[in-house]
Amino acid sequence: MADPPENTAAAVPDALPDHPYLSRLSKTQDLLLCDLYDDTVWRFSVSQARLFCAFDEKLRKGQFDPANDAIPGGYELFATVWNYAEEFPYLFCTLEGENTIEVHGLPPSADSLAPLPAAPSTAPRYSKSQEKTVQDLLWDVARRDAQKRQRIEESRAQREKKRSRLQSEKANAVYGAGLAKPNKTIDGEELARPNRAAIRHRTKGPRASTGPNPSRAVSEGPVAGPSGEPRENQPEVKSDESGAKGKEAAKEVEEPEEADKDAEGEDDIAMED
Questions:
Q1: Is 108 exposed, middle or buried (0-12, 13-18, 19+ CB in 10 A)?
Q2: CB-based contact 56:92 (threshold 8 Å)
Q3: pLDDT band of 272, cuts 50, 70, 90
Q4: What is the rounded distance in angstroms from the CA atom of residue 150 to the CA atom of residue 157?
Q5: pTM of the complete model
Q6: E-only strand ranges, 51-172
Q7: d(CA 6, CA 3)
Q8: Which has the higher per-residue pLDDT, 201 or 164?
Q9: d(Cα 99, Cα 196) in Å, to the nearest integer?
């Protein structure tokens, strides 16, 4: 590993003095370094110059390790041509062999030698009055949109209320006031109880026959009369307005039955004798 150099740290000015062999391009700020011996002009970019300054600092602090660190390309050429100005106070270290570092002058600062270009300033797109006008327009649009949404919601609520009222009126017209006002809620929903009096009033009157009554059909079947004969075999009894004919017919039916009973009694007596 190279021997650590002597500490040559010193205050670095914000701007370097004019180097006798250095010039810059106005647009890119690239460095143009002229060779003292053959008048060759070497061009180095700003990023290269900043990398050379960082490598020079590492050499001065003895932190360079040839086994692990790389030498920036073009550093030896740049340091040699730069150091031709021996009277210039700020110079670059050089490598002499594998393990020897030779320190020259004071360390140049990267920000002084190759400052980064300032960020381009963009002019505001709108003036202050224009920005205020745009902001006012945006707020006005937002306010009108909110008012429009509110009117839509109110109109929808009114339509729903009107539809519910019309349905209620229609139901009352068809069924009457059979349902009382809601007076009970379950899970937040109102329930209506039926009006018993109105229901009884509507259902009052004769009920329509829905079919034959089985019990009645059984009771109306053939039944034996007083004579023991089925009712269907008995003579039909018709009554007039006074009911006399009915009584006479009933008497005629009873007299044959009594005569039959007397005849049966005489036959029993004769058999006993």
A1: buried
A2: yes
A3: very low
A4: 11
A5: 0.42
A6: 94-96, 100-102
A7: 9
A8: 164
A9: 116
